[in-house]
Design goal:
The protein is mostly beta strands. Helix content is 14%, strand content 35%. The longest helix has 20 residues. Keywords: Signal.
Length: 148
């Protein structure tokens, strides 16, 4: 008489559970900012002027947390041989109540402003613009993220 092997559910169920879990995780993970067309260029803490961030042109996005000081924020292009250029006029940040900034999950839940069409400031042998964020009031430290 031939003895039949017993069905071992563990050998079948574990791979199926792993496959279902990986499918759920793949679908539930939100798209990253890079997948949406934005490349993270860095971050800085500053009082009146941030560090420089490189940009290849197109659009440039700056993001601030909701607790950032109220006021106008300006985008400048650093030029080592001439006075720096103000790229766009100031945009107002009013602690998440401003029309100039929008909330986005893709930037870690920060409030962002997109400076459109900054191609004219791409220069130099590296074919990059060197942008920084500037404030004329010194009413606290600001955290900023830059996206290109």
């Amino acid at each position: 008489m031939k003895v039949m092997k017993m069905f071992k559910p563990k050998k079948v169920i574990v791979p199926v559970i792993m496959m279902v879990f990986s499918l759920i995780m793949t679908v539930s993970v939100p798209f990253t900012a890079s997948a949406a067309g934005w490349d993270y260029m860095g971050e800085d803490w500053f009082r009146t002027q941030s560090k420089n961030f490189k940009s290849g042109g197109g659009d440039f996005r700056v993001c601030l947390p909701y607790y950032s000081p109220k006021g106008y924020y300006y985008l400048f292009e650093e030029d080592p041989y001439n006075p720096d250029d103000q790229v766009k006029s100031g945009v107002y940040f009013g602690n998440s109540t401003s029309d100039d900034f929008y909330y986005t999950e893709s930037a870690h839940g920060l409030y962002c402003h997109v400076f459109r069409d900054v191609n004219a400031w791409v220069d130099g042998s590296n074919n990059q613009a060197e942008f920084y964020v500037k404030r004329y009031s010194d009413n606290g430290t600001v955290y900023v993220e830059a996206w290109d």
